[in-house]
Every structure is written in C-alpha cells, then in structure tokens.
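Help needed: design a sequence for this.
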C-alpha cells in the first residue's frame, strides 16, 4: 500500500474519531467568535426585515423550530451574532457566519451542534464525504426546498422501478463522494472492485447508480448489501459456492438466526472480515456475542429452565458454550458451522452434552443404558424446546410427552378399567423408569414385573410358601393388562375362567366347564390366586 493511500486511511480514522465527539469539536472549530456581550445579538424579527423570503421559507421547514423555541437565539444559531452585520452600512456578509461558505469539516461541526445523532447514523459515508470535500449543504437546503432531482418523478418510484430505470455511471462518479470506500477496498477480497479495476466496480454490488446520483444520494435508489432485502441475494450473485445450508443455517433451522441477519452482519465488505480469529489478548467472548445473530433465541431464555446460562454478560464458554460445544470457535470464525459441534447429531451425543450438568441426578444414573437412548430417543424429544421451557415442568406435561410416541398405550387409558393416570392420581413414572432401565435383574429393570406392582399392592408382595408360578414367567402382566382393559380387575381375558385357562389348559377331568357348572368359576375354590401359605392349590 503506497504512502498516499496510508495517509488517506489515517485521515479517515482521525475524522471518524472526530465525529464521535463532534459536539466538543464543533466548539473548538467554530470559525465565528462567541458574542462578547448580549448586545451583539439581534432578534429574528430584525433579520426578517431584510431577509423576509428566507424567513418565510424557514418557518415552513424543519428548522422552523429554531424560531419557535425560546432557548435558541433564532437565526444566530447558525449565522452567529448579527449586530455587526446589521449596523454596517453595506451589511457586509463577512461579518456573519455563512454555513454554505464553510469548509466541509467546519460545516459538519456546526451542523453537529444539533444533528450529531443524524450524522453518526448517516446512511451514506460521513468520513468519506469529508475527504471528498462534500458538505452538508451540497445535498441539504436549510431555508428552502432541497434541490429537485434531475429525473422527473424519481422521488415517487418504487425500489423495483428504480432498478429497472437506473443506468450505470461508473466507479469514477461514485468515488467523487466516496473516496474512502474505494481506498478501504484495497487489500481485501473485494480489491478487484476498487477504482473500477473489474467490470462493474462499485455498481457490481450497489447496482446502477444514475438515479442515486441524480437525487443527491437517495439511499433507497441503490442496492444496499447491509439490508436484509438486498444483502444475501446480492452477495450470492458472486459467491454462489457458499452454500446457505452447509455453511450457514437457513431461517427456521436450529439454531435459528435473528430476523434481518445478512452477510454483512459478520463480513465487512469495505475493509476485511469481522469474523477473523480473536486475538489471544482480546477480552473473552460472552453470550452477548451470540445474541448478535441469535437474538430470538435469547428472547426465550428468561423464565426458562436454563435462564442462568442465558445472561448477556456470562462468558460464552460457561454460557451458550456449555450446551453448544465449540461455541467460542464458532463465534470467532464469524459463524462458520464446522466450528460448532452438532450435539443433536445423535441421541447419545445429545445425552452426553446434557449429562455434563445433570450427571449428579439420581434419576439419570442409568440413562446411558436406558431403553429410550438405546432406541434413539434423545433428551430434547421429551424435554424440548430447551429455549423457552418454563420452570415447573409438571408430570402432566410428561404424560403428554409420553403419549406422543406411545399412542396405543394412551388409548388403553381411555378404556373403562384403567390405572388412574388420566385422573392424575398416578403417572407414567410411577411404574416406569423413564430415563433408564437400571441394572439387569433389579426390580427396576422391567417396569411391569411383580416387583414394581407390589410397591402399591403390598398385600400381594409375599413371600408365600406356595407362590403362583406366574411370577416366574411374566409376573403380574401374565394375567393383568396394567394400562387399561374393558374387563374388571384389568384382566387380559373377558372373565376369570378364560384368564386361567390361557395357562391351565391341563385342568383335571372332573372340572366340568359346562356353562353354569361350579367349576367354571375358578376363584370360588382357588381363592388365593396370588399365593398361599397353606395350600399348594391356592385354596384358603
């Protein structure tokens, strides 16, 4: 980079510093001395005696408030004390301040007394304008109507019409007002667009500029890559190889991006790349770094179960990075997806991420061997969404989650006879270890064995001298359907006789099974069907 170019960029940097404290600069650069005593000022009515036309125009414009407020000294707010001008025989204009005659920097400092916010947020290029010698009054008329556009009706056309009507004017015309933008392109990936070295130059990204120039810089009449409507489509005209899915997440995918995020959120077109690796001496990244692109996700954090991780000033490594491994590298790379670990890629990977914080919970001690994880059911399948899940996650919510996958079981609970889960007196977790099956052979290894049933039905717990041998097979579910049945006592068959015959088809010959015979009611004799301490035949 040659010395002239270095000098230009250094000057621009100094000017930008000037704009951030422009009020102090204005006082230092005010070319007109302050009044030594009040008699050096005159009233606005005195000015209107000679400048009636300008006075009437001013009252109809935005600056009319200068004459209406009692705080500002009327016309002398911009023109300085006017007594010397009024008493001079020739009304010498050099005795007052003429804003249109000031140099660019002096005029900007004067306007910044009231318009510092507008200057800092200017839609164009304030620092570049100063380098180019452009002044506020080149585009803005203080007293009267702004200069009319050379293209008739251009102020009324829509943006899509502007794209069709505008014609190319060449980068040289653009640089007349934006020399700094051109200088900043050198040494960047867009260097070929600087000074028109490439076909298209500035208009390659900003579109044809004739209407923009004719209307003294109307920003809506050119393409602005920093705007959501223009940015992504404009950048992809040249960068089509950057896959919006593989490199960046599309809207609606997780993690979702905030509305309005564009390429320029991370990439600085004029001057490099905002996502370059962080310096080792840089301050640690915080959740606020993530919120720049993921504001919608942060909006759901207050009141959620993970709200302690979602404050903006929390270090990223212990905040968002606690659940999203690789978040620090992801932020430092400007949002590159490959830097972020896709913890939702598999149920087991997701579980390991959650267990970093939840491993001390007794309910999760067997989750790695659990049926859910073995069948690919992840934590967020039941506990999602993590952003926005409120405190007080009740068991009623859990039942709804279970019913999403176990629809047949949910239907059984609507049968006439069922365990009181729909009534809220029991829950799925009353019988099922939802996070894990536990150790093999333990009472919690199979949800519906005798061991689990007798937690509530203790009268059938035993031990019995003569136990019902069904316990050696499937346990209670050999005879009972625990979720719900149309029969009494939750029996698998229509009545007791059919239920017993499903296993005891070798009953004695004298057990006449003719309808109405006493032997058709098995429990009339075998009253202790769950177990007996007196009879091997489960009699009384």
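Sure. Designed sequence:
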């Amino acid at each position: 980079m040659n010395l002239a170019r270095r000098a230009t960029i250094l000057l621009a940097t100094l000017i930008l510093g000037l704009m951030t404290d422009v009020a102090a600069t204005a006082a230092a650069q005010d070319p007109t001395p302050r009044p030594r005593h009040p008699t050096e000022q005159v009233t606005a009515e005195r000015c209107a005696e000679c400048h009636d036309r300008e006075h009437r125009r001013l009252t109809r414009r935005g600056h009319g408030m200068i004459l209406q407020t009692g705080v500002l000294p009327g016309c002398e707010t911009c023109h300085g004390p006017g007594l010397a001008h009024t008493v001079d025989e020739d009304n010498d204009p050099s005795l007052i301040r003429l804003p249109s005659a000031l140099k660019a920097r002096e005029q900007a400092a004067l306007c910044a007394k009231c318009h510092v916010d507008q200057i800092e947020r200017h839609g164009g290029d304030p620092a570049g304008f100063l380098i180019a010698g452009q002044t506020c009054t080149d585009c803005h008329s203080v007293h009267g109507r702004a200069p009319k556009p050379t293209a008739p009706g251009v102020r009324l056309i829509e943006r899509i019409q502007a794209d069709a009507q505008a014609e190319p004017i060449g980068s040289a015309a653009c640089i007349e007002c934006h020399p700094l933008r051109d200088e900043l392109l050198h040494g960047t990936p867009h260097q070929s667009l600087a000074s028109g070295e490439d076909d298209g130059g500035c208009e390659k990204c900003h579109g044809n500029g004739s209407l923009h120039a004719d209307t003294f810089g109307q920003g809506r009449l050119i393409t602005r890559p920093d705007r959501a409507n223009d940015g992504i489509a404009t950048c992809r005209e040249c960068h089509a190889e950057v896959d919006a899915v593989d490199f960046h997440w599309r809207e609606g995918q997780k993690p979702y991006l905030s509305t309005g995020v564009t390429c320029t959120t991370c990439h600085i077109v004029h001057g490099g790349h905002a996502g370059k690796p962080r310096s080792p001496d840089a301050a640690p990244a915080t959740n606020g770094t993530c919120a720049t692109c993921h504001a919608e996700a942060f909006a759901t954090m207050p009141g959620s179960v993970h709200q302690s991780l979602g404050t903006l000033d929390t270090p990223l490594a212990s905040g968002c990075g606690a659940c999203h491994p690789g978040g620090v590298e992801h932020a430092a790379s400007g949002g590159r997806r490959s830097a972020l670990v896709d913890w939702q890629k598999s149920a087991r990977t997701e579980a390991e991420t959650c267990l970093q914080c939840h491993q001390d919970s007794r309910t999760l001690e067997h989750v790695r061997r659990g049926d859910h994880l073995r069948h690919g059911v992840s934590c967020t399948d039941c506990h999602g969404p993590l952003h926005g899940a409120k405190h007080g996650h009740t068991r009623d919510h859990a039942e709804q989650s279970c019913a999403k996958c176990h629809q047949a079981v949910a239907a059984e609970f609507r049968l006439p006879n069922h365990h009181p889960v729909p009534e809220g007196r029991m829950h799925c977790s009353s019988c099922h270890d939802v996070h894990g099956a536990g150790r093999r052979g333990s009472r919690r290894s199979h949800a519906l064995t005798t061991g689990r049933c007798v937690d509530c039905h203790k009268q059938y717990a035993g031990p019995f001298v003569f136990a019902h041998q069904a316990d050696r097979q499937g346990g209670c579910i050999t005879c009972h359907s625990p979720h719900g049945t149309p029969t009494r006592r939750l029996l698998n068959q229509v009545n007791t006789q059919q239920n017993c015959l499903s296993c005891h088809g070798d009953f004695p010959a004298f057990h006449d099974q003719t309808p109405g015979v006493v032997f058709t009611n098995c429990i009339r004799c075998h009253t202790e069907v769950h177990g007996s301490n007196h009879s091997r035949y489960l009699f009384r």
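The first strand starts at residue 267 and ends at 268.
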